[in-house]
Amino acid sequence: MRGLSLTARLGLLFAACTAAVSLTAGVLFSRASQAHFVELDQQLLESRLAAFRALVRDADSPASLAPRLEALQAELRLHPDLALRLEGSEGQYWFTSAKGLRAPGRDGLHEWQQDGTDYRTYGAPLRPEDPASPRITLALDITHHQHFLERMQRLIWLTVGLSALATALLGAWAARSGLRPLHRMAEVAAGVSASSLTTRLADDQVPQELVELVRAFNAMLARLDDAFQRLSAFSADIAHELRTPLSNLLTQTQVILSQERAIDDYREALHSNLEELQRLAQMVGDMLFLAKAEHGLLATRREPLDLASELDALLEYFSPLAEDRQVAMSRSGEARFAADRGMLRRALSNLLDNALRFTPEGGRIELSLASDARGLRLVVANSGAEIPAELLPRLFDRFFRADPARREGREHAGLGLAITRSIVRAHGGDIRCESANGWTRFILDFPAP
């Protein structure tokens, strides 16, 4: 069965079911017919037994039976398929209408076969009230019944075979017609490529059982299309991000080498090149970090942390920059959480650096902690221009910059928020951004341990 197609399997299954049902119905009908014939034969034999008893009831010897033989034979001629045998109480034959019939003289209804002929026999005492009564045995030729049952059985087998064959063919046709949407899905899947990910199947033209499958298939194509678009955008972004520092390195090196220069000029050029190389190294390191995060390879060394102390340490680190920009920073709330100290500081540093860059002079940055039975919430909020709602879902994409007008420096490659999200997810949490009423909030939710 492993090598058969689904259409062939369904066709064979339909054929097997039809054959089983037809055979069961045929066997039941055959047995019902046989039981009906037995019932009719029994009624006939019992009625004839009563008639023959009335003719020879008083006979007690072969001599007393002689005057009644003519009437007995006349009655037998009315039933040519019926034979009669009379025998004394000791088993001696008084009369038999069928020479050579050796049916046993047992009471009740029995079947007997002799010389290729089937009989149904019925034996009983001539006078039931007399223990020494002679016995009477009737034998009915039922060969025609048996022939009928044999023909019916052959017809049943023929019907089973033909119905199974017809059902197999019709089932295969029906299965092929019903599976046409699957063939269509196979054609679409075979034709899927980077340039045809927008193809979709219509779910209103398939059977109800395949609607969910078609929708899942369309959703898969949509996810592939979205992933491919993101990959294409990512490839373009990383090429753009790498081109600028590489171009700077090449241009500056070519200029320096174009003529003899003083040692200080070479030293200054090397320092400038070092800055670009450090930026490239940082970008490559961040990309490797994100690649590990996407494949679940980030190893977190968790330890119990007092988050209030951790946030205070970060605020103290960023306080000189905040004072230069006249930005007020504050922290509220207390909480403890088991996390990787280095990763958590990196994520929070990215959020604070991001907040400082986009908070105007005289603005505020607020950090808040809250924990309950459901988990921990950490919020990093800064005042300033709001981020358009349509850009919020893309803030955590690699190399995405919400707005060039928001003073993002050349040293920022747009990987900070992507790294932050990877770190939060590595700790089992989630992060989202809300921007409204002059405030932008990054909300970090972690489940309870």
Description:
- The structure is a single chain.
- The protein has 449 residues and is an alpha+beta fold.
- Helices cover 53% and strands 18% of the residues.
- It contains 10 helices and 12 strands.
- It has helices at residues 6-56, 62-65, 69-77, 143-178, 180-190, 208-257, 263-294, 307-324, 341-358, 416-426, and strands at 82-87, 93-96, 108-114, 117-125, 135-141, 303-306, 328-332, 336-339, 364-372, 375-383, 430-436, 439-447.
- The strands form 3 sheets. The protein has a 5-stranded antiparallel beta sheet, covered by helices on one side.
- A hairpin with a 2-residue loop joins strand 9 and strand 10 (375-383).
- Helix 6 runs antiparallel to helix 7 (263-294) and helix 8 packs parallel to helix 9 (341-358).
- The protein is rod-shaped and about 160 Å long.
- The model is unreliable at 404-410 (pLDDT under 50).
Approximate helicity band: 40-55%
Which runs of at least 5 residues are low in confidence (pLDDT < 50)? 404-410
Mean pLDDT: 82
- How many DSSP E strands? 12
Largest sheet: 5 strands, antiparallel
Q: Please give the oligomerization state of what you see.
A: single chain
User: Hey, roughly how much beta strand do the residues contain?
Assistant: 15-25%
SSE string: HHHEEEEEHHHHEHEEHEEHEE
DSSP helical segment count: 10
What is the alpha-carbon Rg in Å?
A: 51 Å
